[in-house]
Amino acid sequence: MSSSLQHTTKLPAVSPFDLRQSLRALSGFAPCAGEQVVADGAVRKAFALPTPAAEAIVVEVGPRGDGRAGVSLAVFGGRALADDELRWAERRVTDWLGLADDMTGFLAVAADDPAIRPVLAEVAGLHQVRFASLAEGACYFVLTQRTAQRVAGLRKRRLAAAHGPSLTVGGQRFVAFPAFPTLTGLGPDQLGRFTGNARQTDYLLAAIHALAGADEQWLATAPYDEVLAELRRIRGVGDFTASAIMLRVLGRPDRLPIGMPQFADVAARLYGPGTSIDAVAERYGRYLGWWAYYAKTALASMGVPTTHATRPHRAA
Fold this sequence. Notes:
This protein has a domain at 4-101: TATA-Binding Protein, CATH 3.30.310.20. It contains 15 helices and seven strands. The protein is α+β, with helices and mostly antiparallel strands. The radius of gyration is 19 Å and the shape is globular. Helix 5 (134-143) packs antiparallel against helix 9, helix 5 packs antiparallel against helix 12 (239-248) and helix 11 (224-232) crosses helix 12.
């Protein structure tokens, strides 16, 4: 479908914020590789409108240009978009790029941590980039269970290519991950084309139908333990999957499954072998997720490899 420019605006971000850091993080975010175009200091990406009709919009996010923290936003659509749809697009971009995240508490703790100071310098102004939607992030983390990250990402992209809406902007076709109204219409035979086995298909169906009617505002703001428990009640969602959704989809950094090897590996890279991950967790408290995100992102940009979670994840 062809498109036209529907809306332009400027979105604020909580300072410190540097869009260049977000673009670099996006370029290195393997689960979403190839799903957006980063060029000339801006990024274009498709989003599926949350409507029964499968429709995509494409957003272009660039520098704000007025010296204030934030970004410029252009929204392209295949039809005239209603005001509520434009406000929805603004909220989606704000959440996707973590523009409203207040990093000052984390940065204050990190400033007293000598080992992480070089990391802070490498990623100054970074806010956490998230999955573009709850549907996409939840599906991805179910697909990672007992599956390598590369394979899970490939299956997620195949699912989007088969069932996601698309829009052409500037001669380039952008495909969005399908929204819940589309996903809930898919049965086990259709979803099974993108999973590793029947059990994973069952878990994917369970997550889709449980979250399709969820109050995303409640998920993002209710007490952490209540939301985590609600996610854990979904069939097939264990500690890792629930915690990953909390951090990388909902942007909630309060906790991590710190027993996973990739977090111990990051701690060892920063503080030396034998470092207790529990000591790191005690230092950073409710900012532990941002410690992990900042550290892994900066180490990657410095060419220092860290472990990914490719071991089996135990489901509930």
